Amino acid sequence: MEERRLRPPSPLLMLAEARGIFEFNASLLLSPLLMRAPKGDGHPVLALPGFLASDLSMAPMRRYLRDLGYDTYAWRMGRNVGGVSRMRAALRDRLTEIHTATGRKVSIIGWSLGGVYARDLALQLPDIVRSVITLGSPFSGDVRATNATRLYEALSGETVDDASELRMAIAGDLPMPTTSIYSRTDGIVNWRTSVLRPSDTAENIEVYLASHIGLGVNAAALWAIADRLAQAEGEFSHFDRSGPFAIAYAPPKNAQSA
Questions:
Q1: Which domain of life is it from (predicted)?
Q2: Which of 80, 106, 118, 249 is the most buried (most CB within 10 A)?
Q3: Does the pLDDT at position 203 exceed 90?
Q4: pTM of model > 0.90
């Protein structure tokens, strides 16, 4: 069956990405409320940055999760210039290093391209991955529908059509709890490419009005991440949208409607 051809987000949505700074500032103002999220159990969490970003972009999230009680880790590979196939070995080594050092399964959070890496890692090393959370990651359907595709291909030396079997595997079901957080107002990635197939251990969480570059510092997204990570190992229940940021989340049924 031929994939549905999608378009990248409109130029207007792309220009509106500048609002990401306001999302960050709002999270700072709401930090007392964010700290009311469920506390962590100390398990390791690896944060993977998006395309062209570095560990600095994930620092606010890592600090927030560390304050909640998680053992957070950066990827330590500099700026992410892409290459799903090229980065596989280094990412496996980093994940294995964390697992060996802690003796515990690792949750992985990936922002944008980092989420594509996260899903691939989970398929390669399922026995040491506890859960996967992606933020505005283009892993499903027509993954060319982003405003970063040409630059990704130029810098990484790979095309998004390379390794089609690998791409299809990343888009499929994962053997551990999985959450995709996305926004229909994403100005970089067509939101439809971030929607996974819901199941008893997989879910989509749509955050209203979030930007792509602000999704990792958006207060509602951070609350959802903390809530998902707080689940006991081996257990999963779908996200309860009745918390303090309930107004920021779309109903679950909206995740699959165009």
A1: Bacteria
A2: 118
A3: yes
A4: yes
